[in-house]
Amino acid sequence: MKCPFCGDTENKVVDSRLSKDASVIRRRRQCLACDQRFTTYERLEELATYVIKKDGSREVFDRNKLLKGMMTALNKRPGVTAVMVEEFLDKLETGFQERNLREIPSRELGEAVMNKLQEWDDVAYIRFASVYKEFHNVEEFKHELERILANRQTGPA
């Protein structure tokens, strides 16, 4: 580790401490050239999960992008809190880790979000679905509304 004071790379570790959640190690180091002390932090490099888009391109999974989309769909809708959305996204990400997924199709993400939104609020669902499913006209919108209403009457298939 390069000393921030003199640039020398020879130093010794004087003290090491694990963070409360065991995700970071804090190390106090002492430079052997200038005798100054400095602190370094060591953390595990996170493995990125990639989303495979409809066109086959890949992008790094962005939790905030999903959060923003869900919160936009839920805007001014009663009963669903930001905490509920955060907890859903936590479970979604935990599922990636448990399944050891490094790539996930955007379709799978979209379906999971739509299922949760439909469970919470039909209006939020239709708002999200209209963007996700790329409705091009009123007929497509109407068809989705009719499907929701039919499910209400008969129960989910």
UniProtKB/TrEMBL annotation:
Residues 49-140 form the ATP-cone domain. A zinc finger (unnamed) spans 3-34. It holds the Pfam family Zn_ribbon_NrdR. The keyword Nucleotide-binding applies. GO terms for biological process: negative regulation of DNA-templated transcription. GO terms for molecular function: ATP binding; DNA binding; zinc ion binding. Binds 1 zinc ion. It comes from the Bacteria. PROSITE patterns: ATP_CONE. Its cofactor is Zn(2+). InterPro entries: ATP-cone_dom (IPR005144), NrdR-like_N (IPR055173), RNR_NrdR-like (IPR003796). Keywords: ATP-binding, DNA-binding, Metal-binding, Nucleotide-binding, Repressor, Transcription, Transcription regulation, Zinc, Zinc-finger. The keyword Transferase does not apply. Belongs to the NrdR family. Negatively regulates transcription of bacterial ribonucleotide reductase nrd genes and operons by binding to NrdR-boxes. This is Transcriptional repressor NrdR. It comes from Desulfarculus baarsii (strain ATCC 33931 / DSM 2075 / LMG 7858 / VKM B-1802 / 2st14). The gene is nrdR.
